[in-house]
């Protein structure tokens, strides 16, 4: 991903998450997802919390008021509104980042990263969790090869140290099947 495309990739990833969450039916919130032992609601909570953490790292908002890595599975209010508010805050934070900025802080253990990787990590989090929710609820994949190819560059830059913390499962072996399948396998998911 280049510095010229990071805003488009982030916007596409945010749209994927918002659209996927908005399409969840009332009886699907407690369904399992590809995220081991997490329901659709828990993935929604986690994704919203992560977006708030990225916004906070950029100086907007105070971050999530819950642990995104220990989601309760209970949302007081509308899950669509929760995700929408988190994405709005994150989009506001990234909009304030100057076009000529070379790096940005992240909530990741990596800290400050080159702008295309920092924004890409935020985008990857939104897009891949949108995929988790889509698969859990029987929706079509919101990723696609074009977006996944951009996010795969980011994944290769940040995932390995995080795999040591258990944030990502081991790589799933298999035939390539395109950028989407390659990204998902690299992140420990079965496409």
Describe this entry's structure for a reader:
- One of its GO terms (molecular function) is metal ion binding.
- Residues 10-134 form the Mycothiol-dependent maleylpyruvate isomerase metal-binding domain.
- The protein is an all-alpha fold and 191 residues long.
- The chain has a domain at 6-94 and 105-144: dinb family like domain (Four Helix Bundle (Hemerythrin (Met), subunit A), Up-down Bundle), CATH 1.20.120.450.
- It is 54% helix and 2% strand.
- It has helices at residues 6-22, 40-57, 79-95, 115-137, 144-163, 179-186; strands at residues 103-104, 113-114.
- The protein is globular.
Break the fold down into its secondary structure elements and pairings:
Blueprint: H1 6-22, H2 40-57, H3 79-95, E1 103-104, E2 113-114, H4 115-137, H5 144-163, H6 179-186
Antiparallel strand pairs: 1-2
Helix pairs in contact: 1-3, 1-4, 2-3, 2-4, 4-5, 5-6
């Amino acid at each position: 991903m280049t510095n010229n495309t990071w805003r488009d990739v982030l916007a596409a990833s945010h749209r994927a998450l918002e659209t996927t969450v908005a399409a969840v039916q009332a009886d699907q919130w407690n369904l399992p997802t590809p995220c081991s032992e997490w329901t659709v609601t828990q993935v929604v909570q986690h994704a919203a919390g992560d977006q708030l953490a990225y916004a906070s790292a950029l100086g907007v908002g105070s971050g999530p008021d819950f642990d995104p890595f220990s989601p309760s599975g209970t949302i007081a209010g509308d899950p669509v509104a929760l995700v929408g508010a988190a994405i709005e805050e994150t989009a506001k934070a990234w909009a304030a980042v100057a076009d000529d900025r070379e790096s940005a802080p992240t909530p990741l253990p990596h800290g400050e990263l080159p702008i295309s990787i920092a924004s890409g990590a935020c985008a990857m989090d939104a897009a891949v969790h949108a995929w988790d929710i889509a698969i859990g609820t029987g929706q079509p994949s919101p990723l696609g090869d074009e977006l996944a190819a951009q996010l795969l560059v980011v994944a290769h830059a940040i995932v390995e140290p995080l795999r040591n913390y258990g944030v990502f499962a081991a790589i799933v072996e298999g035939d390539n099947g395109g950028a989407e399948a390659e990204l998902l396998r690299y992140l420990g998911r079965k496409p």
